[in-house]
Amino acid sequence: MNEDMMKETRSKGDIKSRGLSDMLHDFMEGHAPLFWIIFSVVTVLVIYKSFSLIFLEKTPYTWDDVFQHYTLALLCIILMRESYKGQFHLGFRIERFGLGLLLCWPAIPFMCLNLLTGLSDRPIVGESLVLMLLSNFAIGLFEEVVVRAILLGHMMHHYKGDRHRVLKSVLYSALLFGILHIGNALANPVNTAFQVVYATGIGVMFAAAYIRTRNLWPCIIMHALVDFCANMGRIYVQLQPDVEAYQEELMSVPSLISYYLPYEVLTMIPGIVLVGAVIISLLAALAGAFILRGSKQAEIDELWQEM
């Protein structure tokens, strides 16, 4: 069913009755940027952060965190499928998977940078390892579904026919991806500011990879691996109900580099990691711009002919 037939079908249905999905569809079509600002803020900074503060930060066990991310991702998918009567493409496909992984290569330096402070010589706790794999995959799935498959995909549809369609869609989705990391600003404003910057940079790269492939799996996998490496220290700590004891043990996990560097240098590592992340994010943004270079526009237009 093409776009004109969809609109005709909706018009006939509107004569009889207008459901919530029809009104939502009309608002998304007419006010896409405003809709995604409201949706992102409500979903991520209100629902997710409120749930986290009430429940998730009361315990080191994050099985509920895993469930929450999968649930929110599913609800977002249902929202788009219902609003567009199953016609909205979400990127869960096999084609161009290898190309997508190749285009996501700037994520590898992020992994290495995170491993710099995460790897330890302690024995790995099996349950913690399984939990961290599931948790970070759930986060990668949720954020890529919302920001890349849905938000970016919808903006590509919204700006169809605009000569700056790709640029507007990428910048809009990347900026929102960065801003949505502002949730920890009150607790640590400096680190949060850096996180917003490098999330925006790597967001450009992920957006570019998705636009070139319309395959979401590489973005999900690489995103999950970046987050897993950032939380590597948790796999060495046994889960326990005492939150303070858990956090204290987590902080005491020795990094491998602590055995090789003097204390004066070790105190500089957090700052080096933050600055390094910003530099890498800028390189990732440049890589994203190259991925979407002018010579690839015909290929992109053909790939994005339909929703």
Work out the helicity level.
over 70%
Protein structure class: mainly alpha
Span between termini: 11 Å
**How much of the polypeptide forms β-strand, as a percent range?**
under 5%
Q: In total, how many domains does the architecture comprise?
A: 1
- Write down how many β-strands occur, each being a DSSP E stretch of 2 or more residues: 0
The H/E string reads: HHHHHHHHHHHHHH
What gyration radius follows from the Cα positions, in whole Å?
21 Å
- Choose one word for the global shape: globular
Number of helices: 14
Give the integer mean of the pLDDT values.
82
- Describe the largest sheet: none
Indicate the low-confidence ranges by residue numbers. 10-17
In words, what does this structure look like?
The protein has helices at 3-16, 20-30, 32-54, 63-83, 97-103, 107-118, 126-158, 165-179, 189-213, 217-230, 243-251, 263-266, 269-291, 297-303. It is built from 14 helices and no strands. The protein is globular and about 60 Å long. Helix content is 71%, strand content 0%. The N and C termini lie close together (11 Å). It is mainly α.
Fold blueprint:
Layout: H1 3-16, H2 20-30, H3 32-54, H4 63-83, H5 97-103, H6 107-118, H7 126-158, H8 165-179, H9 189-213, H10 217-230, H11 243-251, H12 263-266, H13 269-291, H14 297-303
Helix pairs in contact: 2-3, 3-7, 4-7, 5-9, 5-10, 6-10, 6-13, 7-8, 7-9, 7-10, 8-9, 9-13
